[in-house]
From TrEMBL, chain B:
Annotated organism of origin: Glycomyces lechevalierae
Protein name from the UniProt record: Iron ABC transporter permease
Composition bias, Basic residues: 358-376
Classification of source organism: Bacteria, Bacillati, Actinomycetota, Actinomycetes, Glycomycetales
Top-level taxon in the UniProt lineage: Bacteria
InterPro entries: ABC_BtuC-like, ABC_transptr_permease_BtuC
Major place of residence: membrane
Length: 270, 376
């Protein structure tokens, strides 16, 4: 989207996508403003964010609210805020990453550079990857365990593939995935949809499931209470665990990745 | 041009409520109430624009706003980047939609006929939804929408033109094509990734957020090019009220004239929608509001343009200021504002007018409209 001059040590940062809240706070920078996802409020897993002003939603940022914060750096996603680049860049130097999720590690390093904390970002990412690999090794034979990821959304039920954020974290540990969820041969290997009638086909020895927003929670309550869900072997074995959607799905950052590892350690450690 | 005493021999031709302006061999009949309404609407539009520039997260006084527009103050960015471009775009797009609605409603002789109903908006919407969900470059969004709107209009006109482009046929063809296109859009939305679908849905509602000079410039040039045709349309429209045999009888080429007016309408609507998204109801409500204010038999063009501009400027301004940090797309509010005002006019002005002219055929009120609808 062009080049931009950014201050060496930005002090007032506005972040316009959920992954960038994680990135900024992971690097010890508390943003002055953040856009929220349309279905939810600012994430809670990152601690107290009461000092962070909400500046609209990720799809419809409130430009005047951003301007009023007098930021010196704006981090956003081209994918979501392309139409607003000119206005944003007139307010403060604006850095966009291209995609969300698939390239979360590259995004983290780029945003880290923009925040003037490139070295710290590299170190944090390396630490995470080491921890993920060591956890995988510690599992030994358990690596053959197929891990299933299911998300209840307001209008559909999804499983998540190897190119999704949590899929990438599972990949870093070396854990196995059910055949269906490997999305082999698919162009987009982030996620697929599973119909409500075939909910029992999601597969996996262990299932981690979560819900997006309050409507998703209602879906989750409906379906996980149903016979079909209860007939899944992993559910009967007590190996289906509800996890935090903010951490596993919308978090998309090194802190969220670490917390996924926490969950895996809790439920899978041998 | 000066107004002179009407010579005695012309007194018999004097039209009620109209003033004839003469200058040499040229003469223009002017509907006095329409002219007064236009002046009032222009004042209202200036008021709406002033509100949109002064009031927001930061309050900027009228004096500071004027100073910013003419020089440099501390508010340059707020006014010149964040508020002015989208407001100018709202004026241009609202005006274009108002004119488009007036033209199409006049040709169809039906107040329900507007670009939103007869397929133009639906065609643009389908093309834009495709562009957004198929991952096309953002730069292709507006051209795709423009093409989609024009293609849909071409199909409608082709279907309707088999058989002299009669008013009811035009509306029915439009509704049928619109329904088909909308179902196509729904299929694309359901099949798309949720985030793409969300972006498409915002486009389908219509918003001025993130848009500005580029879009306003495009529309400005478009309107300028359309100006000569609009001058022609202003005169040509007078015959659209006549029934077909009468018009043919006085030597009007009914189909050709109607086709010309309809094409002008759909082209303007497609251009506006391609820049701001499928903003609904401006093109439907603005001409009807203008017609009721001016008390004319068909929607007046200039007053419709001004009403459309006011509606869109107000909708955009309220959308970005009235809901806290939530930025409400303008399209949500055009329907709310326009709909509410039109209902008010239907409930008050229509009945009052009928009561005030006992014994005369009601030209504006509910009965007049019902009579037209029976044509279908």
């Amino acid at each position: 989207m062009g080049t931009t001059e950014i201050p060496a040590e930005p002090q007032r940062v506005v972040v316009l996508d959920t992954d960038k809240i994680d990135t900024a706070l992971s690097l010890g920078v508390t943003p002055v403003g953040a856009a929220r996802a349309s279905e939810t409020e600012l994430p809670t897993y990152l601690g107290d964010l009461s000092g962070v002003a909400v500046v609209g939603t990720t799809a419809e940022p409130d430009l005047e609210a951003i301007e009023a914060l007098e930021p010196d750096l704006i981090l956003g996603s081209k994918f979501r805020q392309e139409a607003f680049y000119d206005e944003l860049n007139a307010i403060a130097p604006t850095v966009f990453t291209e995609q969300v999720g698939v390239t979360w590690k590259e995004n983290f390093l780029l945003d880290g550079d923009a925040l003037g904390k490139g070295e710290e970002a590299k170190q944090l990412l390396a630490d995470y990857e080491t921890r993920a690999a060591e956890f995988g090794t510690s599992l030994g034979d358990a690596l053959a365990t197929e891990v299933s990821l299911v998300r209840f959304m307001p209008d559909q039920i999804r499983f998540y593939g190897p190119d999704s954020f949590s899929g990438i974290v599972l990949g870093d540990t070396g854990l196995a995935r059910p055949e269906l969820q490997q999305l082999n041969g698919a162009e987009d290997r982030r996620f697929g949809e599973v119909s409500a009638e075939e909910l029992d086909t999601v597969g996996g020895d262990v299932i981690f499931y979560c819900a997006y927003g309050t409507d998703g929670e209602a879906m989750l309550a409906d379906y996980t209470g149903g016979e079909l869900w209860q007939s899944i072997p992993a559910v009967q074995d007590g190996k289906a665990h509800q996890v935090d959607d903010e951490v596993w799905m919308t978090g998309i950052g090194v802190t969220a990745a670490g917390m996924i590892l926490d969950d895996l350690e809790q439920y899978l450690a041998v | 041009m000066t107004r002179t005493e009407t010579p005695p021999e012309h007194r018999a031709l004097r039209l009620p409520g109209r003033t004839v302006l003469r200058s040499g061999a040229l003469s223009v009949t002017m509907h006095r109430r329409s002219a007064a309404v236009c002046v009032l609407l222009l004042v209202a539009l200036l008021g709406a624009v002033t509100a949109a520039l002064c009031l927001g997260d930061t309050y900027i006084t009228f004096a500071d706003t004027i100073a910013t527009l003419t020089g440099t103050t501390g508010y340059d960015r707020t006014i010149e980047v964040l508020r002015l471009p989208r407001t100018v775009l709202a004026v241009a797009a609202g005006g274009a939609l108002g004119i488009a609605g007036a033209l199409i409603q006049s040709v169809a002789r039906n107040p329900l006929a507007s670009p939103d109903i007869i397929g133009v908006t639906a065609g643009a919407g389908l093309a834009a939804t495709f562009a957004l969900t198929a991952g096309l470059s953002y730069a292709l969004l507006a051209p795709a929408a423009l093409t989609g709107g024009l293609a849909a209009a071409a199909i409608v006109l082709m279907v309707a033109a088999r058989g002299s482009l009669s008013a009811p046929r035009f509306v029915l063809a439009g509704v049928a094509v619109a329904v088909l296109l909308k179902s196509g859009t729904q299929i694309l939305l359901l099949a798309a990734d949720a985030i793409d679908a969300q972006r498409a849905q915002i486009w389908l509602i219509g918003t001025l957020a993130g848009r500005g000079w580029t879009e306003a410039g495009f529309l400005g040039v478009f309107l300028l090019l359309a100006l000569p045709f609009l001058v022609w349309a202003q005169r040509a429209l007078d015959t659209t009220d006549l029934d077909d045999p009468t018009a043919t009888g006085i030597g009007v080429r009914v189909t050709g004239r109607r086709l010309g007016l309809a094409v002008l309408g759909v082209v303007l609507a497609s251009a506006a929608v391609s820049q701001v998204g499928a903003v609904e109801f401006v093109a439907l409500a603005a001409p009807q509001i203008a017609r009721r204010l001016a008390r004319t038999s068909r929607p007046p063009l200039l007053a419709s343009a001004l009403t459309g501009a006011i509606l869109l400027v107000l909708a955009d301004w309220l959308g970005r200021t009235a809901f806290g940090d939530y930025q409400m797309p303008a399209g949500v509010l055009t329907a709310a504002l326009g709909g509410a005002y039109l209902i008010y006019l239907l409930l008050t002005k229509g009945t009052r007018n009928e009561k005030s002219t006992p014994g005369r055929r009601p030209r504006l009120g509910l009965r007049g409209r019902a009579g037209r609808l029976r044509d279908l």
